[in-house]
Amino acid sequence: MGPSILEIDLAALAHNYHYLRSKIASETMLLGVVKANGYGSESVAIARKLAALGVDYLGVAYTHEGVALRLGGIKTPILVLHPQPEEFSDIVKHCLEPSIYSIRTLEAFIKAAPWEGHYPIHLKLNTGLNRLGLSLGKLAISCEILLNQSNVKVKAIMSHLAATDDLKEKAFTRLQIQRFKEGAAFIEKHIGPVALKHLSNSSGILNFPEAAFNMVRSGIALYGYGNHSKIDSLLKPVATLTTKISQIHSIEKGDWVGYNKGFVAAKKMRVATLTIGHADGISRVYGQGKGVVFVSGNPCPIIGNVCMDMLMIDLGNHVAKEGDKVVIFGKGASAETFASEGKTISYELLTGIGARVNRVIVG
Ligand SMILES: *Cc1c(COP(=O)(O)O)cnc(C)c1O
């Protein structure tokens, strides 16, 4: 086991799951998003826990992520949000459900699906994010294609919202919800009733309850972050990243710390070298006054330039010794705060934690 550890707390995951359930109607289904290795944690462990908690669906971005869950013994329905045509045989082989987001993917999946097997697909509409999805102008042709075959069956209509976490853009979110309703009504008028409709992500669940339809998709909130400090205080961080103090130096005024004179001591001070660096996901945007870590609960700024395998912190007058544990983020040290010090968001920080950091499951 390496010196840096990402502790994954399944009890915190259960807490967040129950919180989200309390925010939706009892008949509304919940899809837990476990893409990008469970937001940087450990997707199979997260998926197993969510399945045990009673999650209705799981979601991943790419096909191989869904295959890994199946190989890990997960039996829950799995939606693949962004599959590629060359992977469609794997989708079928592993009983995954594809998001179909274009005429190209619709035609390719109909070819790949079992003959007259009514294979379930989620038809994804573009309601304004302009990332993935059938534009509303393509729905008539999509319905015509669907009516002329029975290899696939539309199990769900879905879309994705662009700014659920930004209440200044409420009008745009409402416009997207309206377009979604219209698109879904058009499809159902032409091909008949569709079992599921899902639109909301975590912030959508919390800020736009009217957009829940009969399923919602949550990622970041399950991991303990709600894109708002008030919500963060009600959730528990699943992942806690810790590392160690490897060496402590007492340095004099004018001494350098790290590569390229990244820091020059203004006075006599104590500097600790930690066993984590940019190869582990602590970006080089940190340092030079950006980013604070915690030694026995005491905040210590990252100084100089972050190295590949190490970084240095100013210990101030805090009591610390070589071998001590240091908390980068997690319990008692918000990843959202650390991320914002690096001008990014919790999503990027969490998913960027490197493979060299050991994942340890607790709870
Ligand atoms: C990642 C993703 C989600 C989850 O979003 P959160 O903000 O993490 O809840 C939901 N839907 C789609 C299409 C996604 O890509």
Explain what this protein looks like in three dimensions.
The chain starts with a strand and ends with a strand. Helix content is 30%, strand content 24%. It has 2 domains: 10-226, Alanine racemase (TIM Barrel, Alpha-Beta Barrel); 239-362, Lyase, Ornithine Decarboxylase, Chain A, domain 1. The chain contains 12 helices and 18 strands. By secondary structure, the chain is α/β, with parallel strands linked by helices. Helix 1 (10-22) packs across helix 3 (43-53) and helix 7 packs parallel to helix 8. It has an 8-stranded parallel β-sheet. A 6-stranded antiparallel barrel has the order 10-13-16-15-14-17. Helix 8 links the parallel strand 7 and strand 8 (196-198). The structure holds pyridoxal-5'-phosphate. Pyridoxal-5'-phosphate binds at residues 33, 35, 81, 160, 201-202, 217-221.
CATH topology of the largest domain: TIM Barrel
SSE sequence, one letter per element? EHEHHEHEHEHEHEHEHEHEEEEEEEEHHE
- Unreliable stretches, pLDDT < 50, 5 or more residues? none
CATH architectural name of the largest domain: Alpha-Beta Barrel
The CATH class of the largest domain is Alpha Beta
- The H-level CATH homologous superfamily of the largest domain, spelled out, is Alanine racemase
Helix content: 25-40%
| Overall geometric form | elongated
Major β-sheet annotation: 8 strands, parallel
Taken as a percent bin, the fraction of beta residues is: 15-25%
Q: Would you tell me the overall average pLDDT?
A: 97
| Overall number of domains | 2
Termini separation comes to: 19 Å
